[in-house]
Amino acid sequence: MKILVLTPTYFPIMGGAEIGIFEIYRRLALKHEVKILTPWPGQGTAGDYGMEESAFSHSRLDLLRFNDRINLKSWPGHRLLGGLIPPFSGSWIRAALRAIRDDRPDLIHAFYALPTGLAAIIAERRKKIPVVLSLIGRDIPGPGVPPFWGNYVRTVVRSISKTIFISEYCRRALFGADSDWGEVIPFGVDIKKFRPDVDGHPIRESLHIPRESKVLFALQRLDRWKRVDVLIEAMKSIVREMDAFLVIGGKGPENNRLREITQERGLSSRVIFAGYIKEAELPSYYAMSDLFVFHSTYETFGLALLQAMAAGKPIVTVNSTAIPELIVHNQNGLLVPPLDSEELARAAVFLLKNEAAMKSFSTEARKKAMAKYDWQSIADQYEKEFHRCLK
Fold first, then answer.
1. Which of 57, 190, 288, 365 could connect to 332 by a Cys-Cys bridge, CB 3.0–4.6 Å?
2. Do residues 279 and 310 make contact, with C-beta atoms less than 8 angstroms apart?
3. Rounded to 5 degrees, what are φ and ψ at 50?
4. Average pLDDT estimate for 196-224
5. Confidence at 148, pLDDT banded by 50, 70, 90
6. How far is residue 28's CA from residue 358's CA, in Å, rounded to a whole number?
7. DSSP assignment, residue 40?
8. What residue ranges define each of the domains in the chain, with the CATH number in brackets?
9. For residue 227, is pLDDT > 60?
């Protein structure tokens, strides 16, 4: 099978979407011919994300790069109009048609309806090539997503062969609570890389955290939708109960404000900002922690939660958006109301003082990750849907 992948984001940009696309296609490329069409990243991107261009290279994955100059999604006025102007990309249409002409694919797999949706519709309708669309993130209705975008996404979904949602939450957000439109296939985790027996002591030592101290680890992009300030507020109560540190991994626009809040609350010695953590170091960060904590007001999936599960970490997080699809309350973690720092603190303290619950949650988290989210299983599910589209 010849597969042309359309994605507006790929390495060296580093995030859950990029990791997911790579993990799926490095497996499918063992049996199929795969070309990935993606724009050139901005200058300096690799340095910003702490990785080199070659860090996730794969000999079987052919990258086709182009300059995405005619992209209405990047026009600064579109948000002022509530997203009324369709945020599609003319450059995508031209690049996709060129890739189709040069190497006629059997199937096109597009990630994100915006800005690739119009190119996907043209490929399906004019070129008669079946298109599978994966909806995995920020074109799903939610905070910060312009109101009209949902209409454009639904138009794309109804115009192509198959849609795959990364979570049930994403499907409901677009088509309602009772919808059975498309298929739900989550992203996965490398269960051999993220596992409970990794040695985290060198990371603790590098961060100057005593061995006897409890460590809470948080990993996310530092943006306003995550509300990492709630985790910092929770630490005020946690440190009154025990000797504990909070290690925050990730970068983002809220970085300076969060550091200021930490200083104002007198927690500078207890909250450590680790910044961007390289992929190779992530398993050791999970391993050095006793508890994984995660706060987000808008999550279409939650790859960091899944990594923590595979690492066998007990989890305290919030009952919000797609998070309960991964974390079942009192089974592999505790769910608290969003924006409630006191409830989050109480849940964290309860677990850290309850060895039996910690052990039980750790076992269940690892078991669920292995049973449902191994990357090979996810890739196999995608391949099965592709074959269905070609029948």
1. 365
2. no
3. 70, 25
4. 96
5. confident
6. 37
7. P
8. 2-188+374-390 (3.40.50.2000), 201-372 (3.40.50.2000)
9. yes
Distance CA 138, CA 130 (A): 24
Separation CA 56–CA 48 (nearest Å): 16
Q: How many CB atoms are located within 10 Å of the residue 42 CB? A: 9
> Is the pLDDT at 77 greater than 70, yes or no?
no
Per residue in 233-291, pLDDT (tens digit) is 999 999 999 999 999 999 999 999 999 999 999 999 999 999 999 989 999 999 999 99
- Radius of gyration, alpha carbons of the chain: 21
Q: Which residue has the tokens 């061995």?
A: 211
Q: Label residue 266 left, alpha or beta by phi (over 0 means left) and psi (-120 to 50 means alpha).
A: left
In DSSP terms, which residues pair with 215 in a beta bridge? 245
Q: What is the pTM of this model?
A: 0.92
What integer is the mean pLDDT of 70-87? 74
Please name the residue that has the structure tokens 């990258």: 63
165: helix, coil or strand? strand
pLDDT in tens, 35-73: 999 999 875 444 444 444 455 556 688 999 999 988 877
**CA distance readout (Å), 259 to 223, 293, 294, 299:** 13, 18, 18, 23
Q: What's the chain's length in residues?
A: 391
Q: Is 207 exposed, middle or buried (0-12, 13-18, 19+ CB in 10 A)?
A: middle
Nearest to 108 by CA among 94, 91, 87, 122: 122
Query: Once rounded to an integer, what is the mean pLDDT over residues 138-157?
Result: 89
E strand or H helix at 370: helix 355-372
Q: Which of 221, 199, 250 is nearest to 50 (CA)?
A: 250
Tell me the per-residue pLDDT of 194-209, one tens digit each, with 9 for 90 and over. Answer: 999 999 999 999 999 9
* Cβ pair 363, 312 in contact under 8 A: yes
Give the Å distances, CA to CA, from 374 to 4, 32, 283, 306, 317.
24, 20, 16, 10, 22
DSSP string, 242-309: S-EEEEEE---TTHHHHHHHHHHTT-TTTEEEEES--GGGHHHHHHH-SEEE---S--SS-HHHHHHH
110 SS3 class: strand
Q: Provide mean pLDDT across the span 289-318.
A: 97
